Amino acid sequence: MAEYIQIGALIEKDNGLDAYGDISKSDGVIYALLETGRSNDLFSEKQFGEFGEAAVLTLVVDAKQKNQVLEDLAKNLGLNEKGEGFVFEETALLKCS
Question: How far is CA 6 from CA 21, 25, 28, 71, 93, in A?
C-alpha cells in the first residue's frame, strides 16, 4: 500500500476558502494547496458573465487516513447539501529520492 494519496476538489471559491483553513489542519493531511480561478461549468453562480469563481483544493494525505479526510472534506464543503462541487481521489503518490 502506498504511503500517500492525493485528494482533489473542484469547488466554488468561497467554499474552498472556508474549507482550506479547516481541512489543512486535519489529522492525516501532509500538504494542502488552494488555487483559484474562473470556470464556465459546474457552478450555478456566475459572477463574470458565463464564468464563476472556482477553487481547486489539492491535498496530500496519509494513505491510512484517506477515508476520514475524504469524509471530513465532503462534510466541510457541504457537498451533500449544496450539490455543487467535485471531490476525487487520485492514485497513490510515489516518493522519489
Answer: 18, 16, 12, 14, 7
The model's pTM: 0.77
Place of cell 472556508: 18
**What is the CB-side half-sphere exposure of residue 88 using CA atoms within 13 A?**
8
Look at residue 53 and give its three-state secondary structure.
strand
Judged by DSSP in three states, 39 sits in: strand
Per-residue pLDDT band at 59 (split at 50, 70, 90) = very high
**Cα–Cα distance for residue pair 77/44, rounded to 1 Å:** 16
Residue carrying the nine cell digits 510515489: 94
